[in-house]
Amino acid sequence: MILPDWPAPPQVRGLMTTRAGGVSHAPWASLNLGDHVGDDPAHVAANRAHLRQQLPAEPGWLKQVHSARVVELGRDDHFEADAAFTREPGRVCAVLTADCLPVLFCDRAGSVVAAAHAGWRGLAGGVLEAAVAAMQVPPGEVLAWMGAAIGPQAFEVGDDVREAFVAQHAEAAAAFVSQPVPGKWLADIYRLARIRLARVGVHAVYGGGRCTFNETDRFFSYRRDGVTGRMASLVWLA
Prior knowledge:
Order of helices and strands: EHEEEEEHHEEHEEHEHE
Number of strands: 12
Number of helices: 6
CATH class: Alpha Beta
Largest sheet: 6 strands, mixed
Structural class: alpha+beta
CATH topology: CNF1/YfiH-like putative cysteine hydrolases
Strand content: 15-25%
Radius of gyration: 17 Å
Strand order of the largest sheet: 2-3-6-5-7-11
Oligomer: single chain
Shape: globular
Distance between the termini: 19 Å
Mean pLDDT: 96
């Protein structure tokens, strides 16, 4: 388990799970929380029950589709989305990842929290900006924490991905390093997220620096393994 290293108010609680501590067998070993990746449903249920012991309520599990859609827990019954927020204590926002970037949000007053799942499509599509907008607080009052994602030495992408970001923000070009193979780049998803958050006025951004692809014993990685489990990043108001 990883605790966010951000100066959140005491009523804001957050965590990111790792792959350790569950009952799933390889290739989902062991704390797989994804119910859509081919794992034994009984094992997923046991893993979620284990996680639930550390939470005030069952998380609001989303059907993630690499979109910029944000839902409000407790008020929106349509959970096909890639971000969620709440102002109600005890409701748990959650996203699942295995290379994509999870981002947790809160405001300095501790009145609202949010969680977002940002693969490159969702990131380019504005999921982080949408989550900040949904919180309805001044962006300067927002704190963001980036959980573990695929690192800049492992995230190889094509010209299409680079162009999707650079077309929106020219400074995004600095987040891509060209490779010997023409049309291939190494992308820094953490840097891309910081650029986009800064553009909407969120400068208090923490975390980053971990690599799901290279830290084999600690994290699931879809890019590395193909069939694998999912980790959860969660945030709630106590």
